[in-house]
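Recall that a protein's primary structure is simply its ordered list of amino acids. Everything else, from secondary elements to tertiary packing, is in principle encoded there. The following example makes that idea concrete.
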Amino acid sequence: MRVKFWGARGGIPVPMSEVQLREKMREALFNAVGVDLTDWDAIDRYLERLPRRISSTAGGNTTCIEVRGDDFLFILDCGSGIRLLGKELLKGPFGSGQGEAHILVTHTHWDHIQGFPFFDPAFVAGNRLHFHSPFPDLRARFEDQQREVYFPVTMDFMHAERTWEILDPAETVTIAGVRVSMILLSHPGGAYAYRLEHGGKSVILATDGEYHRMDAESTARYVEFFKGADLLIFDAQYSFEQAIDEKRDWGHSTPKMGAELAFRAGVKRLALTHHDQMASDDRLWDSLPEAYNHLAFRGRASGSAVETEVLLAEEGLEIEV
């Protein structure tokens, strides 16, 4: 399976500010000692050597993740990142009305559905979009978002075929040859994590979940669900201090908690996502050593080697699973 991030923010889309861009440019220029800035090739080589916290950005679009195989396309959530995904899909079968996608919806808070009105393939007749979720009123929620009091174009203008399948969260289903299971997370209004399994590989999206207690008994159901995953995409919106104090009951987690659950479940790769809209790229990159330090501590304490790789979910990041 191939995974690509089209949006990794939580809450609201956040374009990079002029101040943030200027600071990246300033730091890049400060370190360009000895680089011939009149030579484009030399500049390109220099940019390739820069740390990613300087040369790139985690991006500002809200949650949307593409999971693709040779015979299937899944879209996980419809945050603002789905707009860019739609533009890319139009270059293939979706541009001629021959595309088919399965859309899994974790929940319908705005940052997870707000991009769908701008998803161009939905306006092309012949395309087939299959929505799947345990929420029985999922269709009504999407239609409400495009009522004229909120948006100028109703879903009636979207000519692609749309189907709505209500899933039983207690059951594992097969969709387009992929085994899909789910678990309810602790989040205001409810949110579901999804586990996709195909060809002996597994990808989990567990965004918008809070873990009030981290003892073995309280986390057992999550550890079992995450067990042995090749890739766990995990909500790490807050710092540990925020999660246990000022942001308690907001329904989000931390890098340290993600690392702890990944350790207990034997996860191979952990991708930190659902970034706080107020977090700078520097703060986001600092979440990696926070997670790695916790994994190292757990490894020393248990006397076992820890091989979990930790990644920062960035717009455009592609992972082969």
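The longest strand covers residues 178-185. The chain has nine helices and 14 strands.
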